[in-house]
Design goal:
The complex is a heterodimer of chains A (304) and B (467).
Chain A: E1 6-13, E2 16-23, H1 25-31, H2 38-55, E3 60-67, E4 71-75, H3 100-119, H4 131-149, E5 155-161, H5 170-182, E6 186-191, H6 197-206, E7 210-212, H7 219-227, H8 231-234, E8 249-250, E9 257-258, E10 262-263, E11 270-271
Parallel strand pairs in A: 2-3, 2-5, 5-6, 6-7
Antiparallel strand pairs in A: 1-2, 1-3, 1-5, 3-4, 8-9, 10-11
Helix pairs in contact in A: 2-3, 2-7, 4-5, 5-6
Chain B: H1 18-23, H2 27-33, H3 37-46, H4 49-59, E1 65-66, H5 67-71, H6 79-91, E2 95-99, E3 105-109, H7 111-122, H8 144-163, H9 172-180, E4 184-185, E5 193-194, H10 196-203, H11 206-219, H12 228-239, E6 247-248, H13 254-266, E7 269-270, E8 278-281, H14 283-286, E9 312-314, E10 319-322, H15 327-333, E11 338-342, E12 347-350, H16 353-361, H17 366-375, H18 379-382, H19 390-402, E13 412-414, H20 420-433, E14 436-440, E15 445-448, H21 450-466
Antiparallel strand pairs in B: 1-3, 2-3, 4-5, 6-8, 7-8, 9-10, 10-12, 11-12, 13-15, 14-15
Helix pairs in contact in B: 2-12, 3-7, 3-12, 20-21
Classes of the chains: A alpha/beta (304), B alpha+beta (467).
Biased composition (Basic and acidic residues) (chain A): 1-11
GO molecular function, one term (chain A): zinc ion binding
Subcellular location (chain A): Nucleus
Amino acid sequence: MYQTRTDKTTDETDTFPSFDADDDISRVQANREPQFTLSKCLDAVMVMGNSHLVMTRNNKLAIIASHCQESHFLYPFKLWKSGDGHGDDNPSTSGDGKYELLSVANDIMAEEIKILMSRTEVKGNQTDTLLAGSLAKALCCILFIKMLTGQEIKSRILVIKAADDCALQYMNFMNVIFAAQKQSILIDACVLDSDSGLLQQACDITGGLYLMIPQKIALAQYLLWVFLPDSDQRSQLVLPPPVHVDYRAACFCHRNLIEIGYVCSVCLSIFCNFSPICTTCETAFKIPLPQMVKAKKKKLKPST
Amino acid sequence: NHKAPPSGCLNHLQCKNLHEYLKELSPTILDKLYNHPATCLAVYRELPPLAKNYVMRMLFLDQPLPQAALALWVKKDSQKDHDECVSVLSGLRLCHTQQLQGGLQGNILNPIFKDNLRIALLGGGRAWADQGDSLGPDRHARDVESLDKYALERWEVILHFMVGSPSAAVSQDLSQLLIQAGLMRAEVGDAPCITSAGFQFLLLDTASQLWYFTLQYLNTAQTRGMDLVEILSFLFQLSFSTLGRDYSVEGMSESLLTFLQHLREFGLVFQRKRKSRRYYPTRLAITLSAGTTANSSSATGVVPGTGDSGFIVVETNYRLYAYTSILLVIALVALFSECLYRFPNVVVAQVTRESVQQAIANGITAQQILHFLRTRAHPVMLKQNPVLPPTITDQIRLWELERDRLQFTEGVLYNQFLSQADFEVLRDRAQGMGCLVWQNVTHRVMVVSPQGHSEVKRFWKRQKSHT
């Protein structure tokens, strides 16, 4: 069974959404809903992307697939360099009633996912995806568009996630979230399988929406109903309420979630066990020990 | 020394937007129109944002939704927006009410609209037009720049013709259209000359001009024997095409081909020769649907003759500097200001009371003058907020209001009554008929509206013969 996971991120900006879709669909397929495959998920994403592009003339879209080995832009690929994406060498024709812009976009997306899948080698039971990396790419993409057009655009990132959280990415993830918050970019999350604490935090901090989908087969409908409206309309519509967020931090040494820990007073890094030298900033701590007992040399725990 | 305004009221240019236009069409025509994905897309794009979300939500539902459920979609304090959305959707016949099982009222999208919007979004159905691939690559392919240049040239010829430049020549059809649109007036045997509505038209931005023009053309379509649905669908299809790509004329009917030739003259499409099998939509065609939105405060598309940026600087001492050498633009500026100096690249003008009131006498409003100045404002001006100095905007409006101190109403004067009783009888009669305009009891003078004059006269004659 094909076990690779791919996350797809989509940026939305004025609205420019980027979808991050996490394709752990194959695992889900084995477990619960056999009808829900990767291609169905992609179809739902395409419908969402098309609906977004159709909304207004100025809307732009980017789709990133997040994989265990890389994050890859599914759309657009090289269109930005040529301007509006017109007059390129091989314009495909829709041949049917689809709006031309959309059929070009969909063809590119299908092409790119094929390329991505064909060059991925399945190595054992990998369950992690480079979600933080994809999010970072999405942020760069948004910034690029902002510089290109020179205007302020409203953007948001939608993450469609099937894989589990990866504790190793905690640091990078939090950094990305705070960067997004600074840039007033919303992060929405559509979670397919199990709740993700990281994404809940992301949505809470940036002001986006978090939703766990009960019926994966209706993914397209959920996307259109909940995640399509932009921030202006969200204030008018009734949408799923925010969830209770688990704000526990992960320690820097093991990446476990802890409630009580040790904090370095210089760089504020968090450790679950005491160590006399902070591994991040290398400050040595003077510990007042009782006189009688000789200071035991504490072994420095190797940081991961 | 104010000239008396011409008799009759001056018509101010009414620019309808797409939705207003569609609401006037009959339901059968609307349904036929919605049978094309491009039209559905164009109408969808013009909806208010909340309505767009409603349409998207209902797009994939096959069953009607109870009205109560629909009302739950919005928060409590956005109820007004919800009602507005529903009225917009039903006014355009996008949303129908249907009886549900159990007697409740439900809402469902117009099935024709729903199917075609789905096609536009997801695919399936017939292709909009032959994409021109069957013709192979074009040996005389045009790039985007040359298309833009061509479009602007053609559009400017029309504007030049309206202003009366001798060099501009347009086809009989086009001048006929301009006359029918009320933008020009032709005396028998003379060349057409511009009307006050024409002046107002000239001051609009390109997108609004295009749209107004197109609407006028559509109104005359029936008389030309063209199918309104066909040409409107084609127009929307054009507005969604990709700039720089060629399309084939395969499968287009006779009337559509004639329409294409007219579009060629307006500068909306480019065709190398009349008999060419392929055509290129220009930027004007693509921004056509953008011109239907009411607020065109941001200059979308290209301002004729000047590239993308504005060129007018207005100072607080009423001086105006127009950095242009285009004759048409200079003529437009001269409509409401006094040109003082002309240099190769700049025209210096002064906005004076006389010049503004002259313009207003020609039917231009202060609002149009200010809109013109704002949309052509130089980037340096755009940096300040507000863009135009408040002194100038206020003063131009005040000059306009000066003319409103006096209001002229036509009427017929009745005076020299022999007795107070006669006067009062007639006055009461006129008042009862609702055509009394003014009276002065002490002088026994009254003014009756022209419409009521014949009635009043008859009544008076009867009175006189009785007494």
